[in-house]
Amino acid sequence: MITKSFEEISVGDIAVTDPRVVTEDYVRSFADLTWDRHPLHLDPDYAQQTRFGRQIAHGALMLSTLLGLVELDPRYLQCFYGLDHVRFHRPTYLGDSVHAVSEVLSVRPRSDGETAIVTSKGSLVNQDGDLVFSGEFSFLVGETHSLDLEVGAR
């Protein structure tokens, strides 16, 4: 999604990620992290009695999954700026595989001349080609020489 400086990003740029399988462990870990332990996500007997017929992943997990799948290069990405038009189109069931598709919608240079607001449409698509989540993500992105730092896990 953000892999280069704002000067090199063009409206219409598209990126597609590798897939991720949504497992029970993945959903349970998210529930533990967030304390969102709704039985629709964790209890198969409860979930079977709902309109979904089986367990589904948290919507917030799917948003986070999209952000985890896309590339956000810290040499250029300065911060998350905003999120608009969020839609959960279909449930994501345990065992589903999802991949992200992103398309740059706008690049708006800021008055400082060193950054721009880059807005992309981000979508998650399941193994059947169905759209399950979409939203517009805005990021503050730096210029080519904005950060020349070594990036590593701490």
Describe this structure in words.
Strands 1, 2, 3, 4, 5 and 6 form a 6-stranded antiparallel sheet that branches. The chain has a single domain (6-142), classed as Hotdog Thioesterase (Thiol Ester Dehydrase, Chain A, Roll). The chain is α+β, with helices and mostly antiparallel strands. It has helices spanning 24-34, 39-42, 44-48, 59-69, and strands at residues 14-16, 20-21, 77-88, 97-109, 115-126, 131-142. The relative contact order is 0.25. The protein is elongated.
Q: What layout of secondary structure does this protein have?
A:
Blueprint: E1 14-16, E2 20-21, H1 24-34, H2 39-42, H3 44-48, H4 59-69, E3 77-88, E4 97-109, E5 115-126, E6 131-142
Antiparallel strand pairs: 1-4, 2-4, 3-6, 4-5, 5-6
Family: Belongs to the enoyl-CoA hydratase/isomerase family.
Pfam families: MaoC_dehydratas
Domain MaoC-like: 18-113
Strand count: 6
Q: In percent, how helical is the residue content?
A: 10-25%
Mean pLDDT: 93
**Cα Rg:** 17 Å
Shape: elongated
Instruction: List low-pLDDT spans.
Output: none
CATH class designation: Alpha Beta
List keywords for this structure.
MaoC-like domain-containing protein, elongated, 154 residues, MCH/BMMD, Thiol Ester Dehydrase, Chain A, alpha+beta, MaoC-like_dom, single chain
